[in-house]
Structures are given as structure tokens and as C-alpha cells.
């Protein structure tokens, strides 16, 4: 006996038995097989709608029918036939249609029972009911178009939800409808929301699937593609990612080999895989070193290698794991690369001698890597410098490059010569090659490459070439060494040690300046056992202050320089980065300790001064005479310590000896200094008064220059900064300023010419200082150049006063050249 309903409705019944919703679906199918039992008279539509509203389910017209069915069954049990008939009429329900519904339901139950369909004993959920109904409504599914405010249905149909439906104006994204009725437009009656996943599952035999963008997925270890699923033209799935191996095994296998195995885009633990990747990286450095792309074999060779050894059915990482588990037992080296496979015949041209893997500088050894990435900041040779030894690295030698790139560097330098010189060295590569052959390896530790090249080019031609003739800025970046400063963090557990890049660049000195705080932090951590703070005397806490301090950090020797650092009211023991920093800081730190342990001899000193001297001392930049005297005492202490045998204080005994000497010699030395200060301050006052009188607009530039010079020479702390032995020269510099005030105002044109010469040299001096590391700027040889500028002013503006040695702009430039670090 067949089901006595439309085939689509019969399909719902069969699916309902599978989903455990047969009891509910039979009620709904019976209702869908006949005219709606709810009446809506034209003259009583509002009353009818109000009466029927009791049965509405907010999300489904199908569940609304179930609610009505339950109500009718309950009322029929409680009322007589006549009363039930009157109730139906009163509540706008068509009695005969209700009886028809009940009769159809009875017939349907009998037919289903005869077919062996088992009704569910438990109440089915709305989802079970809707999934069962969906089996017969696959052509009545719609996707809401928010732009057009209507549903896109099967075969291009466009419909909207009827106003009487519980879903009217709610418009869920997906809807299924029992009936489409066309009047003024196509209306959907009896509706419920649905899920595209339900639709795809129910219509698996009807959907159309298309695939695009096949690609490799590292996370899945397989090829994937974008799947599009449609049902009668309605898109159920727009861009779902699916495995591509079952769709196109050949393409999936090719993607697995190319991306997973050849390119290494696969997370796996197989030994052969990591051995192959490691060998490729090691041999790949040959190309980076030689800056060529033809040393390693191409990817197609590797693809052919794997293709010949891996079975056709292996299309993903999972397939490979299964196959390799057995295959490796027969031949564990089946998929392992060899150098003969990877390297072309030209690889022998790249030697470790020309492209070394390490760079040595004294006791230090650095790892060297090579990048062939034109345009990137790390293109070329990179020297990896651990932060622990950054303070010990010198720029010496790095400008020579590695031997393999030296000829290219020399050629670039020859090409950077001015045109009138360059035409004597054509073709540039030939001259560069011959010059290099004569130079050989670096000959002197402090000889720069441009100096050696200039010397050899001059020797080979009648045209002299100076190192300054080369325009280093025109040399390609990849021919200048890149420095990568790194910190290695110890590995945690079984993980690998992590390398942190702290800074990278071509200028080593700039990196040292930038990372000085990091170096200091590293030093402080390593030297925590010897650093001290808040010391006011040379106690056991200091003991013997060593020249150097060495500690192993992360397997690398950290070498620092312990120093006494003046903090104002006390001193600290700190480990500094360079020996020059140590010596300067310790000199000031020792001074502070000596001052803290010395009673200032002011009463004795003031008693020895004349009233005229006391009056002269009143004009000072310190703000008070006591502060000036403290400055003079600091200067005296420095000079006394400097004149001691050895001129160093690093032990308790040396400090005690220095303290005794200071107490013995402080008063006469301070008196000498104060006696020399009186005429200095008198002359400074004379210059200051002269500047006040110099009000002519034409002399404004000269006045500004003199005021700047005066403020540079006479400032708070100038006595100790100038030093005991150089202090007498201050009066000469000030006297030269006074003479310039007198003569320069009479010939402003000549004064401007001389001032222009001074300013040119001062500008070069400022550039010179800016190019030095901060800790280098206070070294004695650098400070001496600053005093040479004062001597130059004397020679130009007051020549009759004379200078201790000949001085000129050329001599100052030469001194700066000698002091500058070699080019890198």
C-alpha cells in the first residue's frame, strides 16, 4: 500500500522515520495535503487573526500547524461533537476541513504502519521536524537577497514571504516553503528557517560542486581548493576550503611534492626532510656568497627526484606518513639528498678562503653570513656581533671586505674617483685587479683599504691618488659590511636557544653608540659581584680595583673595565665598556673620594689672598666665590694626583698615598691656581664689558662670535676642566679676544674674513666630533684639537701674542684625520 499523498510529501514521511519525527510529520503532511482549516472571512479578518494567533510559533509555520493540531485534539476530548462543532465555528475553524485533516492523518498512519515505518515515542524537536520536511522541499529553498529584499529560489525564481506567515518581515537568511503561490508576485506560504548544511546533506544527489584555486596548505599538510556548492542555482556554499586529493589526485600530489617537500613548507619530524633542508641551506650559502643564482640545481630537478621515488597514491602529508613508515625500513636513504644532486659544477669556484664563515679580530671571532637580496639592508656580508663583546669590537679591518668581494670593492672605488683622475685608470676592473695583486693581504692593522689602494694606484701611475679622492658614498651597499648585534637567550627545556636581533647597520660606531645602554646592562649583570654604590671612602668594598673584568655570559667572555664613577656625594664601582671610559671616570671618581676625605683649606687660603685678588674672584660664572674655590680645589687635586709616580690610583695603598700628598700640597697648589685665576677673571670681565659697549649693528656678528667664545672658556667648572697646566693659556686666549675687540671694530671686513676661516674649521670640528663615539670625544687627543681651535683664533686675531706651536686650519684638519677611526 503506497502513501496516499503527493510524492514530495511522501518523501517527508520516509525521512521523518529516519529522523525520529514521524508522529509530528504525519500531522503536518496531512495538513499540507488539503485546504487550510483556518478560516478568514472577509468581514471578520481581524477577529479571525486574533483567534488564530494563539497557535502561532514565532519561528515556523509548520510548528504552528502542530500547535493547532494539539489544541483540536484536546478540545475534541473535552467537548461533545456538537460543542466541538460550535467551538470550531466560533474560533474560525472549518469543521469539515478539520475532520478531513483527521481522516487523512488516520489514513497516513495506517499506510505508514503497513510499510513498516515506526512512529517515534518521544516528542521530536523542531530541528528534527524541519530536517524531515526539508527532504520534500528541496526545490522550495530560498536565500535572502538583502539588496533586493527578496529570496533567490530554485531555477532563478524570486519570491517573498506571504504576510500571513510568522516569518513575514523577519526574513531569515535561509528559508524553506511548502507552497509558492503567484498572484501580483510570487509568495511563499507555510515557511520555516533552514540551514544550508541541512540542505546540502539532504540534496547530496542533486547539488553541483565546483572547485577553484587549488593550493598548498601547510596547516593541513595537503593540497586544498575552494569549493562552491549550488542547488538548482542557489549557492549553498560559496568558498569552503576542502581537501583536493580526492578531487584531483594528480595535481594534489604535484603540490605536495613542490611545496611540502621541495620548498619545505611542511611541519614534519621526518629525518630525511630536515637533513635535506639543512643541506640546501648550507649549499645555498654558496650562491649568497658568490652573488649568483646558478650554483644550486633548480627546483624541477628536486621535483623529479621525489616524483621518481614516491608512489602515485601519496597526495598529502598523511598519505606520505603512512607510506614512509614502511618504505624507510627497506631504504632509509631513499629520499635523502646528496651534494652531487644539489650542486652544479661551478660550485667549486666558491671557496671558504674567499668567502669565510668566520671573521677574526684579535681574540674575538664572529660568525659571517651572506645574503643575496639586492635592495635589502642586509644585502651582502653580515658579521654577527654578540652584545657581550660589542664594546671590544674595533672598526679596523672591516673596510677590507672578504677576499671574494675585494676586487669588486676596489673596482667600485676606482670608478668613484673624480673624472680627471678616473680617466687615468681605464678600464677600472683591470687596474683594480693589478693593484690588489700587489697589495695582497692587509699589511697593517691600522691601514684602511682606501689608503692601501690609493698608495698602490699612485705607485703604478704618475698621477697621485689620495684616500680622500675616493667617494665612498658611491660604493654599492652590498660591498660594505653589515653588523648585526645579537643577544642569545638560553633555551628553555627542550627548545632551541633564541637569538634576539638588537641592532643592525653598516656603521659599527653608530651601533655601539645606540646600544651602549644594552652593553651597560649586560656588563652590570655580569659584574654584579663587584659593582658597589654609595661609597665615600676607599674601603674594603673597593679593595684593589682591577684593570679589567671578565665573566662568561651565554658561553661568551664579557670583558669590562671597572671604574670609580663620581655620583656627586659619593662614588660607585661600575664596569664600563672601554678602557678610555674607565680611565676618565676613575680620574674623576678618585678626585671625588679625595675631596670627600679632605678638609677644604679655605680659612688658610683666604688669609693669604689680597683684597684685590678677592675682588677679582668675585667676577666668576659659578655664582659665588666658595663654588669657584671648590672648582679650584678639584683642579689642584687632579694635578697633584697626575704628578704622582705612576699617576694612577687603583689600590688602597695608592689611594692613601694620594690622600696624604693632596693634604700636603693642596694649599700651595690651590693658591697658585687662585693667583692665576685673578688675572684670567679680570681679563674676562674686561672682554665682557667691551662686548656690552659693542652695540653697532655692523659689529653684531663679531659680538655674537666673541660672546660664544667667552661662554665656552669661562663657565661653571672651567677651572678643573681646563686643568692646572693649561690654565695659564686662558689669559692669553682672553687677551686675544680683548685685542680683537679693539682692532676688529676698526676693520670689520678683515675680521669677517678671519672669522669665516675660523667658522669653517669649527664646522668641520663639529662634524668630526659627531662622527666619534661619545666615549671617544673626551679622550685627551680629541680634547687637544679643541684647544687648537683657540690657538688658531690667537694666530688670526692677535698674532703678536704668539702660539706655543705653529697652528693653521690645515694642521687642525690633519690632527682630526689622525684621530678619526678608520673608515668602515
How would you characterize the overall build of this protein?
This protein is α+β, with helices and mostly antiparallel strands and 824 residues long. Among the domains are: 7-197, no CATH class; 207-350, no CATH class; 358-489, no CATH class; 515-587, no CATH class. It is 48% helix and 15% strand. It is built from 30 helices and 17 strands. A five-stranded mixed β-barrel has the order 1-2-3-5-4. Strands 9-10-11-12-13 form a five-stranded mixed beta sheet. A hairpin with a 2-residue loop joins strand 15 and strand 16. Helix 23 (625-642) crosses helix 24 and helix 29 (780-797) packs antiparallel against helix 30 (809-819). The longest helix is centred in the last third of the chain and has 42 residues, at 652-693. The mean pLDDT is 87.
Shape field: elongated
Helical residue percent?
40-55%
User: What value does the average pLDDT take?
Assistant: 87
Question: How big is the Rg?
Answer: 48 Å
Q: Report how far apart the termini are.
A: 99 Å
Main β sheet profile: 5 strands, mixed, barrel
| Contiguous uncertain segments of 5+ residues | none
Write the layout of secondary structure elements.
Blueprint: H1 7-19, H2 22-32, H3 45-52, H4 61-78, H5 81-90, H6 95-114, H7 126-134, E1 141-145, E2 150-152, E3 158-161, E4 174-182, E5 186-193, H8 196-202, E6 208-217, E7 222-231, E8 234-243, H9 249-262, H10 271-290, H11 299-309, H12 317-330, H13 339-342, E9 358-361, E10 364-371, E11 380-386, H14 403-415, H15 419-422, H16 428-439, H17 449-460, E12 482-489, E13 498-505, H18 508-514, H19 516-526, E14 532-535, E15 549-553, E16 556-566, E17 571-576, H20 579-596, H21 602-608, H22 611-617, H23 625-642, H24 652-693, H25 700-713, H26 718-722, H27 727-744, H28 748-770, H29 780-797, H30 809-819
Parallel strand pairs: 3-5, 11-12
Antiparallel strand pairs: 1-2, 1-4, 2-3, 4-5, 6-7, 7-8, 9-10, 10-11, 12-13, 14-17, 15-16, 16-17
Helix pairs in contact: 1-2, 1-7, 2-4, 2-6, 9-11, 14-16, 16-17, 20-23, 22-24, 23-24, 24-25, 24-27, 25-27, 27-29, 28-29, 28-30, 29-30
Amino acid at each position: 500500500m503506497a502513501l496516499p499523498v503527493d510524492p514530495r510529501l511522501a518523501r517527508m514521511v520516509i525521512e521523518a522515520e529516519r529522523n525520529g519525527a514521524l508522529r509530528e510529520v504525519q500531522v503536518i503532511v496531512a495538513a499540507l495535503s488539503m485546504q487550510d482549516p483556518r478560516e478568514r472571512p472577509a468581514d471578520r479578518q481581524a477577529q479571525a487573526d486574533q483567534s488564530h494567533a494563539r497557535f502561532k510559533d514565532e519561528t515556523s509555520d509548520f510548528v504552528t500547524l502542530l500547535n493547532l493540531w494539539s489544541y483540536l485534539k484536546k478540545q475534541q476530548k473535552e467537548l461533545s461533537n456538537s460543542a466541538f462543532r460550535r467551538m470550531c465555528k466560533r474560533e474560525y475553524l472549518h469543521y469539515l476541513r478539520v475532520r478531513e485533516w483527521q481522516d487523512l492523518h488516520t489514513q497516513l498512519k495506517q499506510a505508514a504502519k503497513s510499510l513498516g515505518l515506526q512512529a517515534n515515542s518521544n516528542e521530536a524537536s523542531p530541528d528534527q521536524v524541519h530536517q524531515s520536511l526539508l527532504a520534500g522541499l528541496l526545490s522550495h529553498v530560498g536565500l535572502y537577497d538583502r539588496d533586493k529584499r527578496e529570496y533567490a529560489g530554485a531555477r532563478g525564481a524570486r519570491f517573498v514571504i506571504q504576510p500571513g506567515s510568522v516569518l513575514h518581515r523577519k526574513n531569515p537568511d535561509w528559508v524553506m516553503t511548502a507552497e509558492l503561490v503567484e498572484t501580483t508576485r510570487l509568495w511563499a506560504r507555510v515557511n520555516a528557517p533552514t540551514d544550508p548544511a541541512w540542505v546540502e546533506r539532504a540534496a547530496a544527489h542533486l547539488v553541483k560542486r565546483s572547485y577553484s584555486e587549488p593550493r598548498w596548505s601547510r596547516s593541513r599538510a595537503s593540497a586544498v581548493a575552494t569549493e562552491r556548492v549550488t542547488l538548482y542555482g542557489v549557492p549553498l556554499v560559496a568558498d569552503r576550503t576542502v581537501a583536493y586529493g580526492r578531487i584531483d589526485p594528480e595535481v594534489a600530489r604535484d603540490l605536495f611534492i613542490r611545496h611540502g617537500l621541495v620548498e619545505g613548507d611542511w611541519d614534519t619530524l621526518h629525518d630525511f626532510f630536515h637533513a635535506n633542508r639543512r643541506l640546501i641551506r648550507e649549499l645555498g650559502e654558496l650562491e649568497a656568497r658568490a652573488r649568483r643564482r646558478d650554483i644550486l640545481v633548480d627546483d624541477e630537478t628536486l621535483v623529479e627526484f621525489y616524483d621518481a621515488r614516491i608512489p602515485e597514491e601519496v597526495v598529502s602529508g598523511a598519505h606520505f606518513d603512512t607510506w614512509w613508515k614502511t618504505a624507510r625500513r627497506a631504504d632509509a636513504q631513499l629520499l635523502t639528498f646528496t651534494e652531487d644532486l644539489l650542486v652544479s659544477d661551478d660550485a667549486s669556484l666558491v671557496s671558504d678562503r674567499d668567502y669565510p664563515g668566520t671573521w677574526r679580530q684579535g681574540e674575538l671571532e664572529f660568525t659571517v653570513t651572506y645574503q643575496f637580496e639586492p635592495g635589502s639592508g642586509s644585502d651582502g656580508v653580515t658579521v654577527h656581533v654578540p652584545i657581550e663583546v660589542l664594546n671590544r669590537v674595533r672598526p679596523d679591518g672591516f673596510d677590507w671586505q672578504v677576499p671574494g668581494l675585494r676586487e669588486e670593492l676596489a673596482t667600485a672605488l676606482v670608478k668613484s674617483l673624480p673624472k680627471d683622475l678616473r680617466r687615468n685608470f681605464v678600464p677600472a676592473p683591470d687596474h683594480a685587479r693589478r693593484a690588489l695583486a700587489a697589495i695582497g693581504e692587509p699589511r697593517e692593522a691600522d691601514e684602511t683599504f682606501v689608503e692601501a689602494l690609493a698608495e698602490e694606484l699612485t705607485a703604478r701611475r704618475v698621477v697621485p691618488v689620495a684616500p680622500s679622492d675616493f667617494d665612498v658614498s658611491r660604493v654599492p651597499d652590498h660591498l660594505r659590511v653589515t653588523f648585526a648585534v645579537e643577544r642569545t637567550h638560553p633555551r628553555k627545556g627542550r627548545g632551541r636557544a633564541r637569538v634576539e636581533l638588537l641592532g643592525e647597520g653598516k656603521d659599527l660606531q653608530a651601533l655601539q653608540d645606540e646600544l651602549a645602554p644594552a652593553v651597560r646592562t649586560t656588563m652590570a649583570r655580569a659584574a654584579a659581584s663587584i659593582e658597589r654604590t654609595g661609597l665615600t671612602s676607599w674601603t674594603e668594598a673597593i679593595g684593589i680595583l682591577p684593570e679589567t673584568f671578565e665573566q662568561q655570559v651565554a658561553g661568551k667572555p664579557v670583558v669590562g673595565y671597572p671604574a670609580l664613577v663620581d655620583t656627586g656625594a659619593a662614588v660607585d664601582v661600575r664596569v664600563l665598556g672601554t678602557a678610555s671610559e674607565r680611565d676618565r671616570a676613575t680620574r674623576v671618581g678618585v678626585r671625588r673620594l679625595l675631596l670627600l676625605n679632605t678638609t677644604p683649606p679655605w680659612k688658610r687660603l683666604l688669609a693669604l689672598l689680597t683684597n684685590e685678588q678677592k675682588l677679582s674672584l668675585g667676577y666668576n660664572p659659578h655664582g659665588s666665590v666658595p663654588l669657584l674655590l671648590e672648582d679650584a680645589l678639584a683642579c689642584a687635586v687632579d694635578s697633584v694626583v697626575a704628578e704622582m709616580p705612576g699617576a694612577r690610583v687603583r689600590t688602597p695603598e695608592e689611594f692613601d698615598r694620594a690622600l696624604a700628598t693632596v693634604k700636603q700640597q693642596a694649599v700651595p697648589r690651590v693658591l697658585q691656581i687662585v693667583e692665576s685665576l685673578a688675572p684670567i677673571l679680570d681679563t674676562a670681565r674686561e672682554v665682557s664689558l667691551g662686548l656690552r659697549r659693542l652695540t653697532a649693528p655692523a659689529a653684531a656678528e663679531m659680538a655674537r662670535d666673541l660672546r660664544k667664545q667667552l661662554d665656552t672658556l669661562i663657565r661653571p667648572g672651567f677651572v678643573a676642566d681646563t686643568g692646572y697646566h693649561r690654565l695659564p693659556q686662558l689669559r692669553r686666549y682672553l687677551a686675544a679676544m680683548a685685542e680683537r675687540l679693539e682692532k676688529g671694530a676698526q676693520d670689520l671686513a678683515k675680521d669677517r674674513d678671519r672669522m669665516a676661516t675660523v667658522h669653517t674649521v669649527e664646522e668641520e670640528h663639529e662634524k668630526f666630533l659627531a662622527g666619534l663615539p661619545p666615549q671617544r670625544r673626551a679622550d685627551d687627543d680629541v680634547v687637544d684639537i679643541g684647544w687648537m681651535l683657540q690657538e688658531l683664533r690667537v694666530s688670526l686675531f692677535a698674532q703678536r701674542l704668539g702660539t706655543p706651536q705653529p697652528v693653521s686650519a690645515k694642521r687642525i684638519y690633519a690632527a682630526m684625520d689622525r684621530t678619526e677611526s678608520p673608515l668602515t
